[in-house]
Amino acid sequence: MDQSEKLALAEDRVADLRARWTPEATAAAVAFLESRPVAYDLPTMEQGGKTYLDLRGLRIEQTQIDKAYLRNVNLRWAVFRDVGFKNARFVGCNLSQVAFHECYLRRAQFEKCDLVSSRFDSCDFSQAKITDSRIDFASFKNCEVGLQNIEFHKEATARAMVRVCRGLKLNAMSMGNFADAGELTYLEKSYERLGYWRDKAWARWLGSAAQDWIWGYGEKPWRLALAMVLSILMYGTILYWIDGLAAGKTYWEYVYFSGITYLTVGYGDLAPDTPLARFVSVLNAGTGIASLGLLISSITKKVMYR
């Protein structure tokens, strides 16, 4: 884009762009979207070395534009309300800051589109696909958006992906889709950890990595259960090394003592008899209480969400 193009785009105001859409121009734009003959000279623009059909600021309400095929169309600041886009296909389109209200987007496809800051409110996204498109700052409210139907933009930054996952998670929770919400929570925290690594925030990265390893940020309770088993074996081995119980006890008796201490059962048939062993036993019990609390919290959330 040369300097004159940049200046022209910068001077475009949303009010001016929307004011140019007279009833005649809007009807021509709708005809184009419906793949019907158009006897009207719709505007075009050059941007980034590509020629776009310039439909910025367009407003359309209560119509059907099913099976539309749009390639290299600039619809920035457009507003669609109660519009049917069933089986529509958007390829390389600029849809940033576009508002879709109560639109029917069943089986629609968005490929390599710019959806930055776009808004989808109460839209039917059944079987719709978003492929390799920028959706940073896009908002989805009361929309059935399946995570399996979204292919994230390959060049998106970690911070952008944190925002994307957080927005999709809130929408999934509002729609009762807790399976996707759980997966998006894990993705959000994973990208957040990646951001810490790239920012060289080593302490935060280490803490996040530990949470992932221990219980997958609360979304993978089986990891915590495995960590609990390993902790019981670890404390049993430490007690065995320091010989903290009565003489003549086998390794598995130490593991047994570690287990009942970790699970806070405490039968009393075995007890530590040295100061160091007692200190290790206190640590063992404290770790067990914390782990059990986390495990119950994670499993309860999973059960309630289902």
Overview of the molecule:
This protein is an alpha/beta fold. Helix content is 47%, strand content 16%. A 5-stranded parallel beta sheet has the order 3-6-8-10-12. A 5-stranded parallel beta sheet has the order 4-7-9-11-13, with no helix packed on it. It has a 3-stranded mixed beta sheet with strand order 1-2-5, with no helix packed on it. Strand 1 and strand 2 (50-54) form a beta hairpin. Helix 7 packs antiparallel against helix 9 (275-305). The chain is elongated and about 100 Å long.
Structural class: alpha/beta
Rg measurement, Å: 29 Å
User: What percent of the residues sit in helical stretches (DSSP H or I)?
Assistant: 40-55%
- Strand % is 15-25%
What is the total tally of β strands? 13
Give the terminus-to-terminus CA distance.
Answer: 51 Å
Q: The biggest beta sheet, please? A: 5 strands, parallel
The parts where pLDDT drops under 50 for at least 5 residues are 1-11
Tally of separate helices: 9
Shape: elongated
- The SSE order reads HHHEEEEEEEEEEEEEHHHHHH
* Strand line-up of the largest beta sheet: 3-6-8-10-12
Overall average residue pLDDT: 87
Quick structural overview:
This protein has 306 residues and is α/β, with parallel strands linked by helices. Strands 3-6-8-10-12 form a five-stranded parallel beta sheet. The chain has a five-stranded parallel beta sheet with strand order 4-7-9-11-13, with no helix packed on it.
